[in-house]
Design a protein that fits this description.
The complex is a heterodimer. Chain A is α/β, with parallel strands linked by helices. The longest helix of chain B has 17 residues. Chain B is globular. Classes of the chains: A alpha/beta, B alpha+beta. Chains A and B meet through α4, α6, β6, α7 and α8 of A and α4, α5, α6, β3 and α7 of B. β6 of chain A pairs antiparallel with β3 of chain B, so a sheet runs across the interface.
Chain lengths: ~400, ~270
């Protein structure tokens, strides 16, 4: 495929609001996971990656019907790093109908329904009048919200494929641009803490009591996080600065194996990575760093490790940044693409935090300390429930 | 600002249909072409084919509807499911499952079942489809509230025209029970599937060409069918199915995101 330019991007997670906070935390190998005291949750022995300041966000009156934790997080994220101005400039360049909004989320504003069910009428069971489904709970609400924030009139969609959602939006956006339907797209994802995922992963016995330890021999599950990651994707201008970041390839596949367990040999993951390399027209040896999906469950990391080892051996430095951010689910693909972009721009490989004893049975080159080396190309993996896989190849322009 | 009017082209190889009073595409074709009266009787979702017993037991209504229409379209087009990429489009995840989870989370015992949780993801039908079909090809799953059919058709056409893939669009919806149904009313479940290729084959039913427009969307002349079109997001695709049923060169305009619509030019192959 033709390369596309990540002309502007921003991330908000438990590491902080905006890119500087992320770069500083990654440089310092500082994680953001804290013991779970989210909402009314007091009975889960787990850590979470909670974004500070979401509760105090106030949406403008005209967008009040969108008020929920997910859209507040989106609003907070949009206001970092000059992203609003970058989108405004893109609209001026291309026109309102030529800028798409393609975002990933897994649970959107479902917390709103979870809370509304507590306020059901005790006699009739009816939900409270102030609860609005369309603009909060429904998965599309976050793309609708962002489209309304910018008064955009172009194509839009939410991709909701669990934890690969905000990686797959890159692929959809490039197809729309290649087809000539649009000139730019706001891609990325927003996913926020809710009870469904906390108690759901608990039911699968996949929550770690300690801050999650990807690829550690003692890894025992995930820590759930939340994030807003936004990227403005455009065709590259004729001349770019050498530190401009390009999307070089995307690869998508399905496991066709099980709803909540990965293929044990990571067959689908291999296909996604190989597809991304092929789309980028590069070889495995051209990749300088892999940001692993690395959720820190025993089976996920083992399967991904096998897949990476099959394609790359132990030659490529790899890490999962979920020890720092938690697993931000539907926002993970976007957030980790941005972490890859930071590594490319600022010339360092982020070591995974919390991982003390790297699992000796996984034959990959796992980094648990930062490395000061300037990568030219990075691969980012995102896999999810339902056996959905997506890998992205990003590179420097020069 | 003037913009090039992009036209995307594909051939329809197969159709799947399941909705109230529309038990399959052959029956739907007769009703939509106006030869038989339409009555919106409740759907019967068949047990999903191709799933191992455990997965078959766990499958909810949306999985059953999505798999039924997908399999009908593939059989009609004589296609190999393992070669097709898929575009699923749905307004919501499984409604009954979501209600059950919200009810448990609002109770004193918040223990939800693992099956409930993995069935709660929006892409559950895509996951079950992979298991049933063995397809390791890309599957994407969209949500665009009421406009999923148009959005899914556009995504599928970009896959066909840009990447030369054969793509299967599966638009499906299932209602929530109360109390959510009062906030998001939907009378029944429904699904439409279209198998789309980049080149004409002996199986091709029609060529379609789609572009963005802002003319008003087509409505269905039959009041009961028009009620259905407006009541279930997947049914927004019915004007296209009606044009296919009538086997005439025609143009329909489908709902898409305000202020855009999709203009679809249909040219029958036989």
């Amino acid at each position: 495929m033709n390369p596309f330019h990540l002309s502007h991007f921003t991330a908000t997670s438990c590491l902080g609001h905006g890119l500087d906070a992320h770069q500083t935390a990654l440089r310092d190998q500082r994680g953001g996971l804290i013991p779970c005291q989210f909402e009314t949750v007091r009975d889960l022995d787990t850590h979470i990656g909670e974004v500070t300041g979401v509760d105090t966000v106030k949406l403008p009156e005209a967008l009040a019907e969108y008020d929920c934790r997910n859209n507040r997080l989106a609003w907070l994220g949009l206001h970092q790093d000059g992203f609003m101005a970058a989108v405004d400039a893109a609209m001026t360049r291309h026109g309102r109908r030529r800028v798409a909004v393609l975002l990933g989320t897994s649970t959107a504003g479902i917390l709103q329904s979870e809370q509304a069910y507590r306020r059901r009428d005790p006699v009739t069971g009816v939900l409270p009048a102030d609860f609005i489904y369309r603009t909060t709970h429904n998965a599309y609400s976050v793309a609708d919200f962002v489209r309304k924030v910018f008064k955009l009139e172009g194509p839009a969609a939410v991709v909701s494929t669990a934890c690969s959602s905000s990686a797959k939006v890159f692929a959809s956006a490039t197809r729309m641009m290649e087809a000539g339907l649009i000139d730019a797209a706001i891609v990325g994802g927003v996913d926020s803490l809710c009870l469904t995922t906390l108690y759901g992963f608990n039911s699968l016995e996949l929550l770690s009591a300690t801050p999650c330890q990807p690829f550690d021999v003692d890894r025992s599950g995930i820590s759930i996080g939340e994030a807003a990651a936004f990227i403005l994707l455009e065709r590259p201008a004729s001349s770019l600065n050498s530190d401009s970041i390009l999307l070089l390839g995307a690869g998508e596949s399905s496991d066709a194996y099980h709803m909540s367990s990965p293929h044990p040999d990571g067959l689908g993951a291999q296909m996604a990575m190989a597809g991304a390399l092929q789309a980028a027209n590069v070889q495995a040896g051209d990749i300088d760093y892999i940001n692993l999906h690395g959720t820190a469950t025993p089976s996920n990391d083992a399967a991904e490790g096998k897949a990476v080892a099959t394609l790359f051996g132990d030659r490529v430095p790899c890490s999962s940044t979920k020890g720092a951010t938690g697993h931000t689910l539907g926002a993970a693909g976007g957030l980790e693409a941005i972490i890859g972009a930071l590594a490319l721009q600022h010339g360092f490989l982020p070591g995974g935090v919390n991982t003390r004893t790297i699992d000796p049975n996984i034959p990959i080159q796992y980094l648990n300390a930062n490395r000061d080396t300037a990568p030219q190309r990075v691969l980012s993996n995102s896999f999810g429930f339902g056996g959905t896989n997506c890998s992205l190849v990003l590179g420097r322009a020069g | 600002m003037t913009t090039p009017n992009t036209i995307l082209t594909a051939w329809i190889e197969g159709v799947g249909l399941l909705g109230p009073g529309l038990p399959d595409w052959p029956t739907g074709q007769i009703i939509l072409s106006g030869d038989t009266a339409y009555a919106p009787t409740p759907i019967t979702a068949p047990p999903p084919q191709g799933l191992p017993p455990a997965e078959r037991r766990r499958a909810g209504v949306s999985v059953k509807v999505a798999l039924a229409v997908a399999q009908e379209a593939i059989a009609m087009g004589q296609l190999d499911a393992r070669q097709l990429s898929t575009v699923f489009a749905s307004s919501g995840a499984d409604g009954d499952n979501c209600d059950a989870i919200c009810a448990v989370l609002a109770s004193d015992d918040r223990h939800i079942s693992p099956t409930r949780f993995h069935n709660s993801v929006h892409n559950a039908p895509a996951g079950y489809w992979g298991i049933a079909s063995g397809a390791m090809t890309p599957a994407t799953v969209l949500c665009v509230y009421d406009d999923g059919f148009g959005a899914g058709l556009l995504e599928a056409l970009t896959q066909v025209s840009v990447e030369g893939r054969t793509a299967l669009l599966i638009a499906y919806d299932s209602p929530y029970p109360e109390p959510l149904n009062a906030k998001r009313p939907m009378p029944d479940a429904m699904g439409i599937a279209l198998a789309l290729t980049s080149q004409q084959s002996p199986q091709s039913l029609a060529q379609i060409q789609i572009s963005l427009t802002d003319t008003e969307p087509d409505v269905l002349a039959n009041p009961a069918l028009e009620t259905l079109r407006l009541a279930i997001p997947a049914a927004r695709g019915l004007p296209l199915l009606q044009a296919l049923a009538r086997k005439q060169i025609s143009k329909v305009v489908l709902d898409y995101l305000e202020p855009l619509r999709l203009a679809v030019n249909i040219k029958p192959c036989r």
